[in-house]
Amino acid sequence: MNRELSFIIIDDSELDCFVTQKFLERANRKLTIKVFQEAAQALELIRENKSEHNKLPNVILLDLQMPGMSGFKFVEEFEKIPSEIQEKYVIIILTVLSSSSDPKDIYNILTFKTVKSIVEKPLTLEKLISLLKHVPSAGDK
Amino acid sequence: MSEKIKILYVDDEPENLVGFKASLRLDYQILTAVNIPDAIACLDNNPEIRIIFSDQRMPGKTGVDFFEEIRVTHPLPVRIMLTAYTDVESIIDAINKGNIFRFVKKPWIEADIIWAIEEANKFYMANSMLSIKNVELQKAYNELNKFAYSVSHDIRGPLTGILGAINLAREIDDASEMKEMLFLMEKSVKKLNTYVLSMHDYYSMQRGELKITEIDFNRIIDEVKAIYTVNSKVNHVTFKINIKQDEVFLSDHAPLRLILNNLLSNAFKYQDPNGATKSVEVNIDVKDGKAIIYVTDTGIGIQESHLGEIFNLFFRSNSSEVGSGFGLYNVKSAILKLNGQIEVSSVLHQGTTFKVTIPSI
């Protein structure tokens, strides 16, 4: 995978952000990566459309269970922003799945049209390649 | 002995009521009613009635009808039929429809009545205990649900993070990058450790008896001070302590230390790193059998809309990674255990003050 892509990592855990970021950097040197430990800040940036690389397909790797604004809330709010901005992003859920997570929640998050896939932490190369199938190339419309 | 057991007796013949009351009023508190509407009014006004005796044959409704009705509207009192009317049909009805506890035949003898009352009272007490236990059980069950969620996020989360980091470590050659990751891994492990310790605090506050001793607040503060003195120096936070204790104060040492430790930990943790003047102040005043503790900080403050929720288990007002969601819940449990109260006032970006009042036991 040598495509030019922009990633936004949203995760409250500093270590998880670090691991995901380093992993992406190793997989592809052409990536632009932004890291947010607070979903609200990421939303703010997206809403103001200040992302300089907004011509690239933007992949949002989103954790679900976060204090403050959770991943669920983030997606809800994200779908309220103008659709011409929404179109530039693809949301992929990157989370810890466990027997105690409510399957209803997982199902619900997939009903949002901007959410393309769920990946279980930690990210691996196989998972990354398969999730990129959901990401359209820059030229596609 | 505690208060007398309250008993209601319903009978359409006033002389029966008088006789019943006369022989039992020394040991029990007897209320009477000559008809069913009066009896229901009496039940409404005296919710602490434990036992109801009723005649079967009364004008209008029968005793069975009455019991059948109050079984739904007033389910707590124990129902006893007291009647001379003993055909099989009415006994069957009384048992099946009225769901009675005992059947006592008229004319009654005092020993039978007293025995019925004592047995009914035991039954009533067992039922009340059961409903209290049920409420407790429901609460424990709800907390267990929260625990399941929390275990997945707060224990499995950091563990998967560390696992991911170990996988990544196999590919890292750069020493400084590795050190950076080790630092973050260490933070995750420490967080897990704090989480497990708070979980232990949680259990010790929920269970266990009080151990009352003479409390010296200077000693408690000395015990917790060491950690915060370091923090105060490193992060340039002024740490002021004022303790006024001239009288003996009796309480349990462990919950008090937990309260102070958690409040201080929060006061230091939630400082604004860019704040111009940073301070934490503890004021303890022991007077008139009460200890009033203020913990005041100049930190980031708490959103007003969150103030009602900060004492809930696993509630986190702040989105930064530091909180476990146990701290203030444990503080609240400890305060309840010591029969005290806690108040909080906070202004966003200016600071927070907690006021704790604990009575000497």
Topology:
The complex is a heterodimer of chains A (141) and B (361).
Chain A: E1 6-10, H1 14-27, E2 32-36, H2 39-47, E3 58-62, H3 71-78, H4 83-86, E4 89-95, H5 103-110, E5 115-120, H6 125-132
Parallel strand pairs in A: 1-2, 1-3, 3-4, 4-5
Helix pairs in contact in A: 2-3
Chain B: E1 6-10, H1 14-24, E2 29-33, H2 36-45, E3 51-54, H3 63-73, E4 78-83, H4 88-96, E5 102-105, H5 110-169, H6 175-206, E6 212-214, H7 217-234, E7 238-245, E8 250-252, H8 253-269, E9 279-287, E10 290-297, H9 327-337, E11 341-347, E12 351-359
Helix pairs in contact in B: 5-6, 6-9, 7-8, 8-9
Q: SSE string of chain A, helix = H, strand = E?
A: EHEHEHHEHEH
- Integer average pLDDT of chain B: 88
Structural class of the secondary structure composition of chain A?
alpha/beta
Computed over alpha carbons, the radius of gyration of chain A is 14 Å
Number of helices of chain B: 9
Going by CATH, the architecture of chain A would be: 3-Layer(aba) Sandwich
Q: Could you say which overall geometry of chain A the principal axes of the C-alpha atoms support?
A: globular
Q: Number of domains in the coordinates of chain A?
A: 1
Strand order of the largest sheet of chain B: 2-1-3-4-5
- Under CATH at level 1, the class of chain A stands as Alpha Beta
Largest interface comes to: A-B, 29 and 32 residues
